[in-house]
Write a structure and sequence with these properties.
Layout (H helix, E strand, L loop, with lengths): L17 E4 L4 E4 L17 H13 L1 H21 L5 E12 L12 E2 L7 E2 L6 E15 L4 H67 L5 H35 L14 H4 L18 H22 L4 E12 L11 E10 L7 H67 L5 H35 L17
Antiparallel strand pairs: 1-2, 3-6, 4-5, 6-7, 7-8
Helix pairs in contact: 1-3, 2-3, 3-4, 3-6, 3-8, 4-8, 6-7, 7-8
């Protein structure tokens, strides 16, 4: 009963096939035939990040919990399949029985014969006896309307949906590790930049103090330089606090306790490559994004439940039977007189159930429409997410190119301001302003590097991480 699932029509979108190259300040055309690899994080060229992700794939508790949910759903699927086969049970019992005096047996109309005895009543008033019984019970529902098969189809789709959810959990976890690792290395570079700037400003303070004592500078110049020294000194503890938090976050993601993962300081640009991502047609994300695949399998399940609900309107036909041995005496247990059996079809026809079947069908149809809207919205969100991130990656590259030029200009401005001050034709305030601009420009450049790397991680996630149907990577972790 019910219609077989048909994938709903999805909107088409333009092809995004270009990206800005921040190294050459040019637009490059991407190869639409290539897809990100399943182990996309290796494109960043960092062995330490590879090791952390490999550890997280094995020990992250969210990933392991998602794997157990898949195992649970697969067990439900096997249970649903069992309804297609005959059910056979062995039954055995021993019971002390006293027949009611008000029944035919109790009135002496039922007799039995034991070996070597004359017929006698075993149901005289107050008479008790023991009944020994063994039997095989058979039950097999004929799935004429496909109710059981639709239930199995729904359970299978539910298990597949949870498997895609597991992939989504893995993809989210990988994105979190990548973002946390790049944040940690960004903070390493900011700490190094702040410490280098602090050394430079302390040297400047020593020079200005010497010039002040020699009468070549003012006390105001000394105090302004001291203010710059304390300003950058105050930034360093905050950077270190944020770095420790990022390291603790990484430890939790790989399944360890805070302090169990030690990552020595390394500047961001020294440890991470800036990959150019070959992005194909946006419609290809439908084939690998876990959230879209999960939403579609939920839709398949809901469609199967409609057929299952329709089948409840029709008769249930089953074949039932039982056969075995029944006796009140163990010594005639295996004689032909003790054999008993029953066998035949049974039919259950729903006539009046108070609207239960109608409500069940309406519920299934409404559920399907709800999940259809969710499926379509998931696709819309996926297209928007990819479009936003492609724009972000492109504009970040442009932004970085211009910020690099800004850093070079700020360094040259400081050199000229210092030269003019030493020549006595400029105020020291120009030198201080130039130093502030250098620190601001270099800090912004580091932050842009991190933002672009984070955008790339999110882009891989938005593209489904390169997974394709049938891809077995990464595998289910062991229980």
């Amino acid at each position: 009963m019910g219609a077989d699932y048909q994938r709903p029509a999805t909107p088409s979108v333009p092809t995004w096939d270009t990206m800005f190259d921040g190294e050459t300040n040019t637009m490059i055309r991407l190869d639409p035939t290539k897809e990100p690899a399943g182990d996309w994080w290796r494109l960043f060229g960092n062995d330490e990040l590879d090791r952390l992700i490999d550890q997280a794939l094995q020990h992250n508790h969210d990933v392991r919990r998602a794997a157990f949910r898949v195992m649970e759903a697969r067990a439900v699927m096997v249970s649903s399949r069992a309804g297609l086969f005959p059910q056979l049970n062995a039954v055995g019992s021993v019971a002390d029985i006293q027949i009611s005096k008000s029944t035919l047996a109790g009135l002496g109309l039922a007799t039995t014969t034991a070996p070597g005895t004359t017929p006698q009543s075993f149901a005289a008033p107050g008479k008790q006896y023991t009944l020994y019984n063994t039997a095989m019970d058979l039950s097999w529902e004929l799935d004429l309307w496909g109710r059981i098969r639709r239930g199995l189809e729904a359970a299978t789709a539910d298990a597949e949906a949870l498997d895609h959810d597991r992939r989504g959990v893995i993809l989210t976890m990988l994105g979190e590790i990548g973002a946390a690792y790049f944040e940690l290395r960004e903070l390493d570079e900011l700490i190094e930049l702040a410490e280098r700037t602090l050394r430079t400003r302390r040297d400047s303070l020593a020079i200005i103090t010497s010039r002040y004592r020699a009468g070549l500078s003012t006390e105001l110049d000394v105090k302004r330089t001291e203010e710059l020294v304390e300003s950058v000194s105050a930034q360093i503890p905050e950077y270190r606090r944020l770095r420790a938090a990022a390291e603790h976050h990484i430890a939790a993601l790989v399944g360890s306790q805070p302090g169990m993962v030690a990552l020595p300081p390394k500047p961001l640009r020294a440890v991470v490559a800036q990959p150019i991502i070959p992005v194909g047609l946006p419609s290809q994300i439908l084939e690998r994004r876990p959230d879209i695949l999960e939403a579609e399998r939920n839709l398949v399940s809901a469609n199967a439940h409609i057929g299952e609900a329709r089948a409840y309107f029709f008769p249930t036909i089953a074949i039932t039977g039982a056969g075995g041995v029944q006796s009140v005496h163990l010594d005639n247990w295996l004689t032909s007189n003790s054999h008993t059996y029953n066998f035949g079809p049974s039919v259950t026809l729903p006539i009046f159930l108070g609207g239960t079947n109608i409500a069940r069908l309406e519920n299934a149809e409404a559920r399907y429409q709800e999940l259809l809207e969710q499926y379509q919205q998931t696709i819309v969100n996926a297209f928007r997410e990819v479009a936003d991130l492609l724009v972000a990656v492109r504009t970040r590259a442009e932004q970085r190119w211009h910020q690099q030029k800004q850093v070079e200009a700020a360094r040259e401005a400081r050199r000229l301001a210092e030269k003019r001050y030493l020549a006595g034709i400029a105020d020291y305030l120009d030198v201080l302003d130039a130093e502030r601009e250098i620190l601001n420009a270099e800090t912004t450049l580091v932050q842009t590097d991190y933002a672009r790397l984070n955008d790339l991680v999110m882009l891989f996630k938005a593209l489904g991480g390169g997974w394709k149907p049938g891809d077995e990577q990464p595998r289910l972790p062991a229980p």
